[in-house]
């Protein structure tokens, strides 16, 4: 969530409201009138002298960023794929907390179980007195049901069997991958809906990258496509080389033939066969090129439009990473900028426990946000932040 220029105005409005309400309710040092609408009327006035001026510090105005409601991943972050390493599915299915080598997952069922944000997770408020730690309090507050408040952004095409696996992991920190398999003929695969749909534009170029290895049935050619919101029209498509028995990175370029704000990304192959996927990513090609020009190993993470808007604010400082994001539910979920260094495929992911929001994140913006001095900000960091951020990102 990014906050900006309305802060002082809101504070002023709030002060005026407090003065007015206080007078109306008889706040004159003797307590609240039990019935302010009866008897005599109450009047109050506030005079604001707009001609009176005072020096204002140049560092008073700034911005505040916290990863709430996908302000980062799904907002400022330019990645279009949500849950590219399948960590969210691993958590919501229980695979992440188990010792099982593999787990078949019904993606449609997991998506249907997603918790309604408008429905309380528990009606029992007595936990406020029973809890001894924040983690204990939040666990009880969320109730005994499955932790299905994590968004499931992946769905299988008809005829596709999906399974999470720990067999032959991509690397020591990225231990979970997704196996797609089919026993019958026909096009099968998996769909990513992004963050409530992917916004793609006609005339723009997008770079897809993914890690893949052949399944038990041997190599199969892969096709990656961008489909429109109706799932009936192919906006762009590229064929990738069949993956080998070992992990390999496959890339391609997609250029949509139409603009669509609800597009999806589809990885497909012709059955029967199987393939194992991990770290599926889709970035604007301009972000990939900018990273190459900067000598960085990962795509430049910021959306050009939102980064430009922040630059236009000319903030004197930036407050980051926020409040509840720092400590998370448990120490293991606390903010640690060091986990956001290195190639994306080597990052283990992070559960944003916060206070009541629960986001499965891939840790991408943390280090780059520490480098926001490029916007001209002086920096105001809450948490375990270094005095100077490394340029290796």
Task: Describe this structure as you would to a colleague.
- The protein is an alpha+beta fold and 393 residues long.
- It has helices at residues 7-24, 72-76, 87-92, 107-112, 127-130, 134-141, 285-294, 304-313, 324-327, 365-370, and strands at residues 2-3, 63-65, 102-104, 154-156, 161-165, 177-192, 198-200, 206-214, 222-227, 234-240, 248-254, 260-284, 318-320, 350-352, 359-361, 380-381.
- Strands 3, 4, 5, 6, 7, 8, 9, 10, 11 and 12 form a 10-stranded antiparallel sheet that branches. Strands 1-2-13-16 form a 4-stranded mixed sheet, with no helix packed on it.
- It is globular and about 80 Å long.
- Residues 198-266 form the CBM-cenC domain.
- One of its GO terms (molecular function) is alpha-L-arabinofuranosidase activity.
Q: Figure out the total of helices.
A: 10
Going by helix content, strand content and strand pairing, the class is alpha+beta
Percentage beta strand: 25-35%
> Distance between termini?
23 Å
Average pLDDT reading: 78
Indicate the overall shape. globular
Task: Write the CATH architecture name of the domain at 80-114 and 150-287.
Answer: Sandwich
Largest sheet: 10 strands, antiparallel
Radius of gyration: 25 Å
Pfam families: ASD1_dom, CBM_4_9
GO molecular function: alpha-L-arabinofuranosidase activity
Signal peptide: 1-26
Domain CBM-cenC: 198-266
